[in-house]
Amino acid sequence: MHLDFSIIANSLPYLWKGFQYTVQLTVIAALGGLFFGTLLALARLSPIKWLSGFAGGYVNLMRSIPLVLVIFWFFFLMPEILQWATRAERPVQIGAERTAIITFILFEAAYFCEIMRAGIQSIPKGQVNSAYALGLTYGQAMRLVILPQAFRNMIPILLTQTIILFQDTSLVYVISATDFVGAASKIAQRDGRLVEMYLFVAVVYFVICYTLSFMVKRLQKKIAVIR
Amino acid sequence: MTTYIMNWGVFFDELPGGGERYWQLIVSGIGWTLAVSACAWVIALALGSVIGTIRTTDRPWMVHFGNAWVEFFRNIPLLVQMFLWYFVVPEFIPPLKSWIVQTDPANAQFVSAVLCLGLFTSARVAEQVRAGIQSLARGQRMAGMAIGLTQPQVYRYVLLPMGFRIIIPPLTSETMNLIKNSSIALTIGLPELTFRARELGEYTFNFFEAFTAATLIYIAIAMTANRVMALVERRTAVPGFIVGGAK
Questions:
Q1: CA distance A31 to A20
Q2: Could you tell me the maximum CA-CA distance found in chain B, to the nearest angstrom?
Q3: Separation between Cα atoms, residue A46 and residue A58, nearest integer Å
């Protein structure tokens, strides 16, 4: 068979736009997921029954169904929810790209919740007790004593999860959003050059993810020495 | 004002073509999901065990090969791997290409999905197997060598039997990941559960009912897999060692 990689050079600007969206989606979902995931973790560890029950149920539900199905769910529900919230005449369409951002924040929150929960639980109970003994409130104890340490202990795992997230964002393909894979497949199908395009995409993902996970491994060793 | 109208009876309606009913669509989707997952799981466990084991041996080339295997499958998105198996690999293997052209598309999709998910999961299983073997006390390997076992015998009789037992819980979550990941096969057109749920939604506009059904079925499958693995864990437990999942 005949390979012609000039198609990649010709479509670089379009691919670059898709790639930028992939990075944007990854960063926003990671930060948003970490924020809501931490709140969920605190809720899960809360002594208030209904709160921990709700957080546990949410996390377990998100983790037991495929991401593709979650994406479909949000893609279908979002217009209906927005219609209800804004009292609009008909379902409010916000487009695949914005739907994907909201979906990934809420989906990743469940995974970051479990990481942060493990992080919080890795801090000795005595630290919480001594924080209270000093007269700190719950919020202060968490914000000033527990969470900084939990966060620091979990940095390698949080980064690894972010690399997985970076790969998972490719699934926005199923709602035809134009991320890196989406852009590549649109050009590949237009020009009938699937082989060159998908090989190129695979190489790009591999180089980026391999480099990032290598750096995380080195960071992990560094942190392990300090502790 | 347009509002969404629920119709839970939709599953018993007939398809536009007549004859079949929508619930049969969902059932056939479950069939594909389970078939792909089961076949891929066999490949993943077999290959993953071998790759994971050779990564703990004292042969550098084996260790390097195992590491390269894991890194390769771990650093490319599963969706892209699916495309590689379905669109790219056959182009380089002419006999495979000609088989795909003449066979039922579902067969080609099934084989691609099984290979893709099997090899992808094998890298993850290999990682667990390696961790399981390395978590054993160093003395076990040494004791095996000391009583005159060869390296393969040490693995066969000393390290692997304990290593596999230790990694049953992480293997359980890999099994569930595999079942969830099988939904990505819809991108190459395999009519598995998520594919069918979306199809039902598109035919009838009853997306809510279709996705609810799929969600509940995935939860049920995950819980069943969980129970089966817990059973395996209890049946293989070695007296005197802590065993989870026994509730």
A1: 17
A2: 81
A3: 15
Set of chain A residues whose Cβ sits within 8 Å of the Cβ of B2: 89-91
Sketch out chain B's domains with CATH numbers. 28-192+216-235 (1.10.3720.10)
d(CA A23, CA A31): 12
pLDDT tens digits, A14-69: 999 999 999 999 999 999 999 999 999 999 999 999 999 999 999 999 999 999 99
Structure tokens at B122: 């094998």
Q: Which structural domains are found in chain A, ordered by start?
A: 13-181 (1.10.3720.10)
Closest CB from B84, B184, B187 relative to A202: B84
CB < 8 Å to B83, chain A: 185, 194, 198, 201
Residue B1 scores a pLDDT above 80: no
Q: Does B23 touch chain A (CB under 8 A)?
A: no
Report the chain A residue with the minimal C-alpha distance to residue B223.
A64
Query: With contact defined as beta carbons under 8 Å apart, do B185 and B36 qualify?
Result: yes
Closest CA to B218 of A86, A1, A88, A65: A65
Distance from the Cα of B193 to chain A's closest Cα (Å) equals 10
The 10 Å Cβ neighbour count of residue A144 is: 12
DSSP secondary structure of B136-170: S-HHHHHHHHHTT--HHHIIIIIIHHHHHHHTHHH
A76-115: per-residue pLDDT in tens?
888 888 888 888 888 888 888 889 999 999 999 999 999 9
Q: What is the ipTM of this complex?
A: 0.91
List CB contacts (< 8 A) between A171 and chain B.
77, 79, 184
Is B161 near chain A, with CB under 8 Å? Answer: no
B47-56, B81-90, B189-198, B202-211 — which is least confidently predicted?
B202-211
How far apart CA A78 and CA B208 sit, in angstroms, is 12
How many other CB atoms sit within 10 Å of the CB of residue B46? Answer: 13
pTM as predicted: 0.90
Q: Which residue has the tokens 């377990």?
A: A60
